[in-house]
Amino acid sequence: MPSLPGHADITRLTGAYPLNWLCYRASQDEQLRTGLHTNPAATLRSLPAPLPPLSDADQRLLLDGDVPALLDAGVHPLLLVRLATFRLFGLDPDVYSHRMGAGHEHNP
User: Fold this and answer.
1) What is the pLDDT of residue 92?
2) Which of 12, 15, 73, 95 has its CA 20 to 30 Å from the CA of residue 52?
3) CATH number at residue 99
4) Integer distance in angstroms from the first to the last C-alpha of the chain?
5) How much is the pLDDT for 12?
6) Is 44 within the bounds of a domain?
7) 76: which residues sit within 8 A by CB, 6+ positions away?
8) Residue numbers of the chain with a pLDDT score lower than 70
């Protein structure tokens, strides 16, 4: 039987809320997506309401398209794949799949 989540798990998952929200909104909001395509760094620094602000570390993970680190940070894979679907942050389905596999090799 799996154990209940501990404080560290809850902190990690609640800390991932802004990242998860961005992944969701990017798939719903064409204007946001356009900004993420044309000037991703500036768009991440000035996210429109109601998007919560992203930390500098979270922005770096996104700008790097670091799939394994984003998953480790608590981003849900079904939300994260939307970035690849819309070809954001240097991701596309093939790159996402490759990076997803690379992350699992290092984090069994």
Assistant:
1) 96
2) 95
3) 1.10.700
4) 20
5) 57
6) yes
7) 20, 23
8) 1-14, 103-108
Question: For residue 86, is it within any domain?
Answer: yes
On whether the CB atoms of residues 51 and 18 are closer than 8 A, the answer is yes
Residue 3 tokens, joined: 């154990």
Query: CA separation (Å) from 9 to 38, 59, 64, 75, 77?
Result: 35, 21, 24, 12, 16
For residue 64, what are the domain limits?
8-106
Instruction: Assess contact for 70 and 79: CB atoms under 8 A.
Output: no
Distances (CA, A) of 98 to 63, 73, 88, 103, 105: 17, 18, 16, 9, 11
pTM (2 decimals)?
A: 0.80
Closest CA to 103 of 81, 72, 73: 72
Total of domains in the chain: 1
